[in-house]
Design goal:
Blueprint: H1 2-12, E1 14-18, H2 19-36, H3 41-51, H4 54-67, E2 76-84, E3 91-97
Antiparallel strand pairs: 1-3, 2-3
């Protein structure tokens, strides 16, 4: 679950999910971005072992990580939504990369 949500966040830049899932994927994605700040074959292989998706790894190293080269941390933010989900009332949130 965490791996799939992280792939979607890296590819799309922003996803809507439950607040609990957003809090669960935040440290996973933060560590991947920190890893991708140094573009090397070893780091690409490590990222691939965690994501198992070539498209997500290439997007991580080519578009996401270069934006955060000078930033020491805090690459994502969670924006909580006021309304609950229609079916079960679960709290929802957006998780997105900081601009």
């Amino acid at each position: 679950m965490v791996q799939g949500l992280a792939m979607e966040l890296i590819i799309h830049g922003k996803i809507r999910t439950t607040e609990t899932k957003a809090k669960a994927i935040k440290p996973f994605v933060e560590k991947l971005v920190t890893l991708a700040k140094v573009d090397s074959i070893a780091n690409r292989r490590l990222a691939f072992t965690k994501l198992n998706n070539k498209e997500a790894v290439s997007a991580l190293f080519s578009t996401v990580a270069p934006k955060f080269r000078q930033r020491p941390g805090g690459y994502t933010r969670i924006l909580k939504l006021s309304e609950g989900r229609l079916g079960d009332g679960a709290k929802e949130a957006f998780i997105a990369f900081v601009e």
